[in-house]
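Hey L., structure's done. Input below.
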Amino acid sequence: MDKRLFLALILTALVVVVTPILFPTQRAPGGTAADSVATRRADTVATTGAAAARSAASAPPVQGAGAPARDSAAPAGAATAETTVVDAGRSTYAISSVGAAPVSVRMNQYQTLRAARKASKAPVELVRPGEALLRYRLVVPGDTVALDQVPFTLTQGGGVPNPRALTYEAAVSGARVAISYAFVPDSYTVRVSGRVEGTGSRGYLLVDLPSGINSEEADTLDDHRNLAYALKPERENAKSIHFDKLDPGERRLEPGPLTWVVAKNKYFLVGLLTPQGDQPFAELAVAGGARVSKVASRASATAVEQLRDGRFAFELYAGPQEWRRLVALGRDFENANPYGGFMQGIVQPFATIVMRVLLWMHEALRLNYGWVLIIFGIVVRLALWPFNQRAMRTSLKMQAVQPELQAVQERFKGDPQKMQQEIMVVYRKHGMSPFSALSGCLPMLLPMPVFITLFFVFQNTIEFRGVPFLWLADISLKDPYYVLPLLMGASAYALSWIGMRNAPENPQAKMMSYIFPVMMLVFFVNAASGLNLYYTVQNLAALPQQWLIANERSKGAKPAAVAPAVARGPGGGGGAAVRGKVPKARG
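Output:
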């Protein structure tokens, strides 16, 4: 394999690693968020109301499909909480009358993968024990009211089996507050609206997002590493704030207008979207939570919506990060999990293409995603075959012309202008230019966007969650036997070894042929097994092309060996040697 390829890979890796270090994300000063609407309230963002916490803990299990259930609990010093359970098809919500907010939501079509609960086949629960899905506050002139401690009355939808709409009302500080929920069947979406009467037209609704998403994965540590909030400014790309980037107690203010805000883990999310054409969120206030381990698992975030004539509205999506479903919601919601960090502008478009292709292949071929990845890897390699062929042949031509270039440089080292002229003569004679080396390397870099895209895609693609293949129980997790990482490393070494065949002696390239496979092995040993499967197939599919190029190099090796003597010619210090060899050859 040509040393320029190794150099390109090393430079790419250095850019990925060094850029965040040289240009770190600027953190907002601690006092910035204190001036926001979201922080002008009696209690802090991180404090969970006692009534909401107890009502969440007392939420009853679903007794039957579609039947609304009521259960009462009487927290000390609080009003009796009645919980209404609504089966919305793909999800099941529990709404508490204290706070008029959802306290739990279960994914009916996704089962827990946690080892301790896997045998029970329990549905995924997004809300952590003792917490609520959402909490509301009202900022009105001269007061901030925590609605999560206010008892509401269910005035509509409670007496109908499988209600599609619920409305709660309460009197709060001289005002009348109503909050309604319209459940969109089989969509994970709920339309939330409300009105506040008696406070004038001014005011804000504060919506507290979850402090994190409950982990139901086999690898809970990896799930916690993916905990983050995300937001979409109206005129900018979506961005995320990972929990581990927030120091405990650190506050950030993300100014609006914001199209949507999200709390997410690896595969699921809770998102608030402004209705199409409606007023966006004014801002998002984020604060780091206390840490009990090295991996941050708690934070807090509050979305702010300004009341319009005493009214507010947003859409609640609490469900899986199914790519097509998020695309169907519009408003760039498929970017609720922004890929690529500072390379988002490059990675995100490729992620869209890759996801479309993989989902189409899965449906069209009706194959397991493991076989889809194998076919996809082979197809990508075949599609890049002409580009790689051109790059490899350019490399061969560069190796052949190097002796002539070195001879010209040696001959005219005292006359730089003449040297440049003669170098251009050599390039023209071989149909090349000084930029041929660069143009030859560029085709080898074409797989890099797919390489980087798949690395990010495999971290959050729920379609791969729990998918078995051959000896692998789940292609989204690492290979428990490390078979695929070892095969990937061995195939990378085979590519390097074949690439070195019949090549000019180069100690640096030889050293890299050993170092590069080891680097790849270390980098991918704990990566998703599906990712290892794809790159192993890529390497194996590249072996025939590498072998053919090595044979071409072997055929061109003998003419290249005599090129330095021919290139120097008369007056170049090598004419005698040439003249001495010609008669001998004729004899």
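Confidence is low (pLDDT under 50) at residues 15-35, 37-77, 560-587. Residues 45-321 form a domain with the Beta-galactosidase; Chain A, domain 5 fold (CATH 2.70.98.90).

-- N.
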